[in-house]
Design brief:
This protein is α/β, with parallel strands linked by helices. The chain has a single domain, classed as Glutaconate Coenzyme A-transferase (3-Layer(aba) Sandwich). The protein has 3 helices and 12 strands. The longest helix is centred in the N-terminal third of the chain and has 9 residues.
Length: 206
């Protein structure tokens, strides 16, 4: 039985330390903002210039000018702050973000990540991902285990254009949690009922 999106988000949240700073990429990682317990004291950073994102707004508090990097409306918590892009990326490049959680098209056994384009398809741009994978202290990839075509997304070597080389620390999919290590993939945890043969990763499992 695979993990659903909320279960994946909770597995990622379990990796966060209390009172840390976190940047969430677009797509699946945005679910995390709605599920972080307030008791953990986590500050969510958005590269468009917000520190202190706190889930989704209500109908009464929604503002069209208060958005995250994926252009989704957000709420903010007590102590939130706003700043320009230069300061925001200074935080990222200066190593002040403890965790970033990004979606992925592919990740591989060397810790490489491809998450920004498929050749021949419309490209929206790299965004802040290239800075985040090199600036954040811990890089977590949250993605489905297989593509829509049924191909595994954790590979020996990525064949899509890379976002970053040897940058991935942890991968969380709907089938389990994994760690690239020494050119192999180490299994940290598998979803209930999932066997190694279900992963389609026989050649790269540690």
């Amino acid at each position: 039985m695979s993990w659903d999106k909320n279960m994946m988000a909770d597995k990622v949240i379990g990796l966060f330390t209390d009172h840390c700073s976190v940047n969430l990429g677009i797509g699946l990682p945005t679910l995390i903002a709605e599920r972080i317990p307030s008791s953990k004291g986590i500050m969510i950073h958005s590269e468009n210039g917000v520190l202190g994102v706190s889930g989704r707004p209500t109908k009464e508090t929604v503002s069209p000018t208060l958005i995250n990097a994926g252009k989704e409306t957000i709420a903010v918590g007590d102590g939130a702050s706003y700043f320009d892009s230069s300061l925001s990326f200074g935080m990222i490049r200066g190593g002040h973000i403890d965790f970033c959680v990004l979606g992925g098209m592919q990740a591989d056994a060397k810790g490489n990540l491809a998450n920004w384009m498929i050749p021949g398809h419309k490209v929206t741009g790299m965004g802040g991902a290239m800075d985040l994978v090199n600036g954040a202290k811990t890089v977590i990839i949250m993605m489905t285990h297989f593509s829509k075509n049924g191909d595994p997304k954790i590979l020996d070597v990525c064949d899509l254009p890379l976002t970053g080389k040897e940058v991935v620390d942890i991968i969380v999919t709907d089938l389990g949690m994994f760690k690239p290590h020494d050119g192999k993939i180490e299994i940290i945890e598998l979803a209930e009922g999932i066997d190694k043969t279900d992963l389609k990763m026989d050649t790269i499992l540690k």
